[in-house]
Amino acid sequence: MTPNNSSHSPASKKVDHQGSLSSYQIYVLIILSIIGAPLLNFPRFVAAEAGADGVWLSVISGLLVTGFVYMVSKLCQRFTGQTFVQFIPEIFETKRMKWIGKGIASLIIICFALYWMNQISFQVRLFSEATNTTLLPKTPIEVTILTLLLASTFASYSRPAVIGMLNEFLFPIILLPFLLQLYVVFKKGEWVHLFPLLQSDWRGLGKGILSNGLGFSGFEVLFLIMGYSQKVEHSAKVSAKAILTTTVLLSSTIIAQYLVFGVDALSKNLWSALDFYKEVRPELLVIERIEAFVLGIWVVIAFIAITNLQFALVRTICEAFQVKEEQTKYVAWALLPFFYGGAMVSENISDFFTKFQEYSYIGFVFSIVVPIVLFLLAIIRRKKIPSKKKDQKGEENHHATSS
Amino acid sequence: MRHLPKIIILTLIFPLLAGCWDRREIEDRLYVSAIAIDSTEDDDIAEISVQIPIPNQVVGGGGGGQAEGGKGPSGPFELLSGVGKTYSEAMHQIVVSSNDPLFFGNMQVIMISEEQAKKGIERFMDAIKRTSEVRRQLYPIVVKGKAKDALNVKVPSEEIPVNYIRGMLRSGTRNGIFADITLGQLLIDMGLPGCQFPIMNYMEPTEGGYKWDGIAVFKGEKMVGAIQGREDVAGVLQVRTNQKGHVVIVPRKDGMIAFHPYSSKRKIKVNPDGSVVIDIDVTGLIQEKTSTDDLSKTEVLQDVSNQVSTIYQRQMKGLVNHSQKELKADVFNLGEYVRAYQPKFYNSINWQEDYPDIPITTKYHVTIHRYGISSD
Fold this sequence. Notes:
The complex is a heterodimer.
Chain A (H helix, E strand, L loop, with lengths): L9 H4 L9 H12 L7 H9 L3 H25 L5 H9 L5 H37 L6 H16 L3 H15 L1 H13 L13 H12 L8 H4 L9 H27 L1 H5 L4 H7 L11 H31 L7 H16 L5 H32 L7 H15 L1
Chain B lengths: L3 H10 L16 E2 L2 E6 L6 E8 L23 E8 L2 H10 L5 E2 L5 E5 H6 L2 H9 L8 E5 L3 H4 L10 H14 L8 H9 L7 E8 L2 E11 L2 E6 L2 H11 L7 E5 L2 E16 L5 E14 L8 H30 L6 H8 L1 H6 L2 H4 L5 E11 L6
Parallel strand pairs in B: 1-5, 2-6, 6-7, 7-8, 13-14
Antiparallel strand pairs in B: 2-3, 3-4, 8-9, 9-10, 11-12, 12-13
Helix pairs in contact in B: 8-9
């Protein structure tokens, strides 16, 4: 892997797709990359890992991730129009030893790529397990996995602008289950199920914050999409808003399921998100079973999250190896067997959860630690690429002074 | 022609689409409308029966309908039974004796015989909750006598008896009379550590129908008794599920006044010493009056409200006493509140054993909103 060495001239760093995503598209893309198939099981995971305190720790985790993402965006703002593939080498390189920058960057990018591959395989398998258990028991899991992967791979090699529009289009649809859950809570929720709070020790609280933080996996796509942003100067606010919105969506889902099931019943319910909607008989809606309707929307949620992650991975690889735009699709299709293999690696569901959660924890900690190091190094070493506007302004001023 | 290879590939992919494996024609399924769980002489073995409607035998189902009440191909439904040590074993016997696969997605009622309920229900509930087809909105009930026989009752107004029970339960819960306990609620109750006393509706098959007999009370997975009598059940449900309560007849000096509640809200407070205070706000209207009281006067309404509160309070005191001294079962689900609000105290005691010694106080606040369309 040879990341672009673009320290020579700012003009050469400009990627083809710079400026192809609007602020709203970035906002939606971040949310939809985080909220994916894992939400089908995530409240159960939080209940099992964090106990009753999982409810408020989800909000704390969200706020911490918001602050963290704001910092990451500030890091990306320092390198206007560049994706992380381009700016990481610059942070590490020295004038004499440019290979250090390339070497460390390659290592970091490989780790991110592996983490995304793990996340894609995890999401695909998780969603297929959910559909096969609840809806299509006779369909071989290989078929559901492949169907989903074929669709997401086909979409993943689209240009960033297309991916942005796809996310923008699907965003209102995915909000429907979150609105419906208010109805379920109104009908079946009990405040008493949220208590007793503050029962965890310090270790438990740390574990709770980390397990809740895992729900935000997928935010790493912003390392890439910031490079495609139209208004880099707004990107920090936009990404912080996106994480805050995600916090509201994730926390409300967790709180809603705690209110209905209680922490103990929830921790024993594998597909709690679907059973949650089975708790009520809708009186005003035309459909008799809202869980079927919700599962239908969940197909969209899983599809778009997997597509976004695949898109990020494919673009990262293409940028790292300087693959031409028209060859992107070959990269996307070549990766498909790896996702499939990753998804099929576990023999049974408990092995699957154990294995993938371990990898996800490692990946999540990595995706938190690395940006902090990058940010600090960028400040200490004063690494920065000024924005185009500033450049132009600077040039104008220069002309004015000289004339 | 440029897109021909793509079209061919897409056409070849269609058979691989996920839904095709699970495709099943509607007439190739046996729709289970209810199951009955009965005990046998051997404590380890249970009998499970399923009720399957036969569409072309039901009036309007295309076959003319001979409402002969069940058994066999001549009636509108079929009853299939199996016995086994586990739910799956008994169900396997049913499956091998039926011509099409069973579908549980339309199941409305699970009937458990009182005898089996007293032996325990957990193993059946475990099997049922693992089946994703089963709706969490169906009604689990305990029936007096054999549950299989309860599935075979001839009801004049319904060809499929389970439709009658479902209608009865649905309207009873909507009116706030029956316990609103669905399968989902039962599973939640059984999963809550502080809720060690689940409840279910308790019914008895009669000649030509069913009679609601109150609520069956469980200690863990075993039925320990029942609360019968409308007032007592209403008191339990006011606290447990916020249901509205029952009609109260207030004696006046020259007649009576009937108070009809239409909503009830309870607040449960747990003190650090474990004592529980239940505040219940009941709102309702005057449904009937034979006395000469002038209801347009605020003081009269206040007086009637106080009387209703006193009656409710007296009944509730008796009910609390009954649950602590005789049943020794926390029918109100107060354990969950004690665990939630005073976890230290809860962890220091054994709720199942110590419940009878917990001081419980109830306070009623009754508000009369209106008195019908008559002005006095």
